[in-house]
Design a protein that fits this description.
CATH class: Alpha Beta
Largest sheet: 7 strands, mixed
Mean pLDDT: 86
Distance between the termini: 10 Å
Strand content: 15-25%
CATH superfamily: Ribonuclease H-like superfamily/Ribonuclease H
Number of domains: 1
Structural class: alpha/beta
Oligomer: single chain
Strand order of the largest sheet: 3-2-1-4-5-6-7
Shape: globular
Number of helices: 6
Length: about 180
Amino acid sequence: MVQQDKINYVVAIDPGPTKSALVLLNLKREIIFRAYDHNDTARKSLSGWQMPGTVMVIERMQSMGMAVGASVFETCYNIGRFVEMWPLDSYLVSRGQVKMEICGSMRAKDPNIRQAMMDLYGGERRACIGTKKQPGKLYGIAGDLWSALAIGNAFINFMGRGEHYEYIYQQANDACRVNPIN
């Protein structure tokens, strides 16, 4: 279980086969950094955030019972690469957990998640996203960054309630271990 008093920042990642979305949030839900980059570049960005009090939360793959293509396996590989290079606490959350936490429904789609994030950060599109001349709190959030933002906010909610989720941790000469949700 996460000890909230030891966490200051959350790095949330929506992984992809070639590019991933990263959002760095503080516990006040302020966006410190955001990027949508090639996975190698994204991993390099993460190295600058490896400071005590920072956790990484990444969306995990979830079987839907259908055949999958090469891009799904490449995404799984990249999730492993992110976890491998991150020396601090790491957590996995499923898309379903994020949908239920942010929208209250497993039927939620990307537009529903985007709207829920806008509601959380100020409601009206003009107020929360803003313009180039008057950027709002969500200025620059687009595409997969919405999902990364939702992952981070869902995790902050889970943490606030002291809930359990998959915890991955690493030690100097140890392999990566996963403790299942209790």
